[in-house]
Amino acid sequence: MNKKGFFGNWGGAYIPEILFQTFQELNHEFEVCKKDSSFWQEYIDLMSTYSCRPTPLTHATNLSRYFGGAQIYIKREDLNHTGAHKANNVMGQGLLIKRMGKKRVIAETGAGQHGMATATMAAKFGFDCTIYMGEEDVLRQRPNVFWMEKMGATVIPVTDGSRTLKDAINEAFRDWVTNVDNTHYALGTVCGPHPFPEMVAWFQSIIGMEAHEQILKQHGRMPARVYACVGGGSNAIGVFKRFIEEPDVELIGVEAGGHGLETGEHAARLCGTGASPGVAQGYKTMFLQDDDGQMLNTHSVAAGLDYVGVSPILTDLWEQGRVRFEAATDKEVMAALDLTMKKEGLIPALESSHAFVQAFKEAPLLSGDDAIIINMSGRGDKDIFTIAHAFNDPSWKEFIIDRAREYSR
Ligand SMILES: *Cc1c(COP(=O)(O)O)cnc(C)c1O
């Protein structure tokens, strides 16, 4: 990364003048923290007493036997508090906010997972908390909105544009511009203007640091391949970062193939042909956009992968050929999830199941001495409505109708 926050040709900080000083302050604070080993220790202590770090690396013996190839290991980010790797980022930023003496935190959220994690962090640290969420997403993700409000956060439905994630991001920036003095914007992934990509990657790198140590201990050597799903890219960079220095470890990012790349209904930015370079939301990357630079509508069964941009760090690693990108369709995702539940008793999130799809395609081609790691970014309980619907479970449908009747009495 060079001085202005670029990773190769990607990244940067395209910010309005009014935020200049805030970013300077944030950059300064982050630089100080990076050099201060006691800050990292404070972070580790917090994550091991409030979340569930180190998360285990599980040897999936049944799946390994089933595919008859590589030994499959699963990094269990689902065991974090709030059920996903997102806790790593928000708790880290919480410590940073405390140091900067700010009292209010805002965040954007699409599926509600980052909003949930931020509301949790705000409650724990005693910050005021406002979450921006597209009106469409508020309707779709009622359970998350319920919990955020119960934890004391204010959830503001955004009625602009397509009323989804990108509109929520714009609204959060608007709020920040007006309230810079007391407010920190806790961005949810490794995107946005510098220093966010680097900072979020730094906190998330704890995943790969643990996995590196665990695989050596449990398997005796480096894995052949590491798989992660890619929305904004934070769980992927988190698990990849420590392994980038290991030249023999192949890194594979799996994007949302949706209904199939040929349908245009997907969120495949780096493995498809639909994305082009652009600058939006404060940074430069490959965006799914039309010839006029208008963002395209994306689709995925996994709400957390449904995003038009992608981390500048990953775009750089893609350009260098260090990370290979693949896509998994909605249909493949349901099949991989089904198999993982039956064989291992694990329920990966729909997002994480994308990584499982690609790993399952490749595991049989490797030898039994090889190990592969799948990053299970989160747990699937949150997806029960979508999963039950996709499996077309008749008794679930009955249950929902019964509940609705009961409530309307
Ligand atoms: C939010 C989310 C993702 C996508 O975000 P990244 O920044 O790409 O990691 C993936 N998995 C789960 C479980 C999520 O909640």
Count of folded domains: 2
Q: What would you call the shape?
A: globular
- Low-confidence stretches at least 5 residues in length (pLDDT < 50)? none
Determine the oligomeric state from the structure: single chain
In the CATH scheme, what's the topology name of the largest domain? Rossmann fold
Assign the CATH class of the largest domain.
Alpha Beta
Mean pLDDT: 95
Radius of gyration: 20 Å
InterPro entries: Trp_synth_b_CS, Trp_synth_beta, Trp_synth_beta/beta-like, TrpB-like_PALP, TrpB-like_PALP_sf
EC number: 4.2.1.20
Keywords: Amino-acid biosynthesis, Aromatic amino acid biosynthesis, Lyase, Pyridoxal phosphate, Tryptophan biosynthesis
Pfam family, one: PALP
Question: Would you give an account of this structure?
Answer:
A 6-stranded mixed β-sheet has the order 3-4-14-9-10-13, with helices on both faces. Helix 4 packs across helix 9 (196-204). The longest helix has 16 residues, at 20-35. Helix content is 45%, strand content 18%. It folds into 2 domains: 13-48 and 84-200, 3-Layer(aba) Sandwich (Rossmann fold); 53-83 and 205-390, Rossmann fold (3-Layer(aba) Sandwich), CATH 3.40.50.1100. Helix 11 links the parallel strand 9 (225-229) and strand 10 (250-258). It is α/β, with parallel strands linked by helices and 409 residues long. The structure holds pyridoxal-5'-phosphate. Belongs to the TrpB family. Its cofactor is pyridoxal 5'-phosphate. Keywords: Amino-acid biosynthesis, Aromatic amino acid biosynthesis, Lyase, Pyridoxal phosphate, Tryptophan biosynthesis. It catalyses: (1S,2R)-1-C-(indol-3-yl)glycerol 3-phosphate + L-serine = D-glyceraldehyde 3-phosphate + L-tryptophan + H2O. Pathway: Amino-acid biosynthesis; L-tryptophan biosynthesis; L-tryptophan from chorismate: step 5/5.
